[in-house]
Amino acid sequence: MKKYKFTIHGSEFAVRVRKVEGEQVMLEVNGTPYDVTVHREAQPSKTPVVMVRKEINTKAGNERVKENFKPVEESKRPSAKTIKSPLPGNVLKVNVNEGDNFKEGDVLMIMESMKMENNILAERDGKIVKVVAPAGKAVLQDEVLFEIE
C-alpha cells in the first residue's frame, strides 16, 4: 500500500492506494474509499516478445548424404603432388634436398610459428622434385612448401 499527500487549491489530502488491477484502482482519500478508473497512455512493454519457430521437417543424416554425394571429377581433385604449409610461419630448416627420397613420418622441414618450432612431417613415401620454400622464407597457411612425386 502506497501513501501520498496532495495539496489542491490549498486543501491537503492524504491518499492511500489500496489495490491496482489494470485500470481500476481502489484508494482511500482522507479515510473515504473510492474506486477509480485510471486513464493513461498504453506504453510498450519492455519485455521482449518471444516468437515460436515453426517446426522444421528434416531428413535423416544418411538420406541427406545420399542426395548430396557425388564423386569429385578427376580434373577437380586436389593434387597430391605438393606438400602445403599447415600454418603461417617462417622456415627455419629444410631437412631434404631436390631428388631426395623420403618415407612416411620423416621430418621434411622445421617451421617457426608463434614462437614455437613445428615439424613438417611426410604423410606418405615419395621423392622431392622441388623445394619451393627455402630456409628463411616466410610462408602463409596452405602455401606450397615442396613439389613431390
Question: Any overview of this molecule?
Answer:
- This protein folds into two domains: 36 residues, no CATH class; 71 residues, OB fold (Dihydrolipoamide Acetyltransferase, E2P) (Beta Barrel), CATH 2.40.50.100.
- Helix content is 5%, strand content 45%.
- The chain contains one helix and twelve strands; from the N terminus they run ββββαββββββββ.
- The strands form three sheets. Strands 1-2-3-4 form a four-stranded antiparallel sheet, with no helix packed on it. A four-stranded antiparallel sheet has the order 5-12-10-7, with no helix packed on it. A four-stranded antiparallel sheet has the order 9-8-6-11, with no helix packed on it.
- The chain starts with a strand and ends with a strand.
- The model has no long low-confidence stretch (mean pLDDT 84).
Quickly give the CATH architecture of the largest domain: Beta Barrel
Number of domains: 2
The CATH superfamily title of the largest domain? RNA polymerase II/Efflux pump adaptor protein, barrel-sandwich hybrid domain
CATH topology of the largest domain: OB fold (Dihydrolipoamide Acetyltransferase, E2P)
DSSP helix fraction: under 10%
Terminal CA distance: 88 Å
Indicate the mean pLDDT.
84
Spatial strand sequence of the major β-sheet: 1-2-3-4
Structural category is mainly beta
Largest sheet: 4 strands, antiparallel
The secondary-structure element order is: EEEEHEEEEEEEE
Q: How big a fraction of the residues is strand?
A: 35-45%
What is the number of beta strands? 12
